[in-house]
Amino acid sequence: MSAANPTNQPRPPAQRKQPLEPPEDAVAPVRHPEAPAPGEPLGAHYGQCFGCGGEQPHGLHLSATAGEGVSVTAEFTVKPAHQGAPGLAHGGVLTTALDETLGSLGWLMHVIAVTGRLETDFLRPVPVGTVLHLEAHVTGVHGRKIYSTAVGRIGGPDGEVAVRADAVFIEVKVEHFIDNGRDEEIEAAMADPDQVRRARAFEVNP
Ligand SMILES: CCCCCCCCCCCCCCCC(=O)SCCNC(=O)CCNC(=O)[C@H](O)C(C)(C)COP(=O)(O)OP(=O)(O)OC[C@H]1O[C@@H](n2cnc3c(N)ncnc32)[C@H](O)[C@@H]1OP(=O)(O)O
């Protein structure tokens, strides 16, 4: 018996770990014709987002920029509030920065997607005050599944890789948020015409 599966019963399909590599019949990601041009900042997808929101005082305030193809770059400055050990970034916070960067790839395809699976490798400790230079791109698309990978470098955009991650995001409709989010935040988001327009525009994906 393993600790992770104490009864040793086979897991139902929905609970099995899904591969992080695109399957052989995956297709290449398609950049939407109206995607922001390379070099353009993407802005926040939601002001209260812990990863990117400007109105979120406790957040990472990560800022992402469109790259070539279906890729993005982003920067995240590690603050004292992000510590795990003295003077070092918390691993979960670094994973959040990777998650947010990978999540922003949806903007380039005009697809709304949520994280299904995310695996992080921590290669170097990241001190407080460090600017983490992130790069992410989509490696393949299979139905609603979007496979992607990211690295975070320290000491500059070409510096040493401190963290890396592979992920599968799953495409969803706006209803995913409306049906599952707490009413007060959903109502506030729905009352913001810019938020609704931005989210609905993503559902038309030629
Ligand atoms: C007015 C308001 C506007 C708001 C506008 C917001 C705009 C923009 C927001 C962007 C936000 C990003 C923010 C950062 C990224 C997060 O942090 S997202 C938050 C963390 N993630 C979550 O909360 C997701 C929780 N999980 C779920 O809700 C559901 O499990 C999912 C992921 C939607 C999937 O459920 P489902 O739709 O029922 O999918 P299902 O039909 O079972 O599976 C479809 C396929 O996906 C695969 N799959 C399903 N789950 C997984 C999984 N966990 N791992 C791997 N593969 C999976 C299945 O195997 C299946 O594959 P195929 O059989 O087609 O080959």
TrEMBL record:
Keywords: Apoptosis, Cell membrane, Cell projection, Cytoplasm, Fatty acid metabolism, Hydrolase, Lipid metabolism, Membrane, Transit peptide. SUPFAM superfamilies: Thioesterase/thiol ester dehydrase-isomerase. The keyword Glycosyltransferase does not apply. It catalyses: octanoyl-CoA + H2O = octanoate + CoA + H(+); (9Z)-octadecenoyl-CoA + H2O = (9Z)-octadecenoate + CoA + H(+); dodecanoyl-CoA + H2O = dodecanoate + CoA + H(+); decanoyl-CoA + H2O = decanoate + CoA + H(+). It holds the Pfam family 4HBT. It comes from the Bacteria. It is found in: Cell projection, Ruffle membrane; Cytoplasm; Membrane. Its main location: membrane. Its EC number is 3.1.2.2. Residues 87-146 form the Thioesterase domain. Residues 1-42 are annotated as: Disordered. It is a peripheral membrane protein. Belongs to the THEM4/THEM5 thioesterase family. This is Acyl-coenzyme A thioesterase THEM4. It comes from Streptomyces albiaxialis.
